Amino acid sequence: MSKRLNLDPGNELEFLQIAAAKDPAERERFWKLLLSSDVWVLADQLSETNLVLNTWGTNGSETCGVFTSQALVDRAMEPETPWVKVNATVVFKSMIDAGLGVFINPRYDAQVRLRTKDLALLLDGNFSMVQGTNA
């Protein structure tokens, strides 16, 4: 595995992501803000309502990359990597329907992996039950 990039926070959501990685008491604040935020998803947009998510396999499951700012996408990904800015709640619902997990800020030291069941818990407001990992 290549060395992860340092997550230099550029907005409140990224500050909270770092805080939540260090202090479990901050996780609920991070999850709530994430759900109300727009995120940058690795995807091609075919129409206003149709996205083709760019996925990769990890340990037998498909995962999609989601970033909390365009600056983080630009730093972590190749320049031609397609992305779409969309509300996190909307795209997470789509990911559950497609059976996909998500990496929040992949390739960064504070990345969070959420499996489909974690996304469902998040959307149901069961923040304390979300078992996101850093791998």
Explain what the structure shows.
The chain is of the alpha+beta class. It has a single domain (about 10-130), classed as 3-Layer(aba) Sandwich (Trna Endonuclease, Chain: A, domain 1). About 35% of the residues lie in helices and about 25% in strands. Strands 1, 2, 3, 4, 5, 6 and 7 form a 7-stranded mixed beta sheet that branches. It is globular, with a radius of gyration of 14 Å. The termini are close together.
Highlighted features:
single chain, 135 residues, alpha+beta, Trna Endonuclease, Chain: A, domain 1, 7-stranded mixed beta sheet, 7 strands, 34% helix, globular
Summarize the structure.
With 135 residues, the chain is of the alpha+beta class.
CATH 4th-level superfamily: Uncharacterised protein PF11572, DUF3234
Extract low-pLDDT stretches: none
Distance between the termini: 11 Å
Label the CATH architecture. Answer: 3-Layer(aba) Sandwich
The helix-and-strand class reads alpha+beta
The run of helices and strands is: HHEEEEHEHEEH
Name of the top-level CATH class: Alpha Beta
Instruction: Compute the average pLDDT.
Output: 90
Annotation, overall tally of beta strands: 7
- Specify Rg, calculated over alpha carbons: 14 Å
Shape: globular
Count of the separate structural domains: 1
Percent range for helical residues?
25-40%
CATH topology: Trna Endonuclease, Chain: A, domain 1
Largest sheet: 7 strands, mixed
User: In percent, how much strand structure appears in the residues?
Assistant: 25-35%
**DSSP helix count?**
5
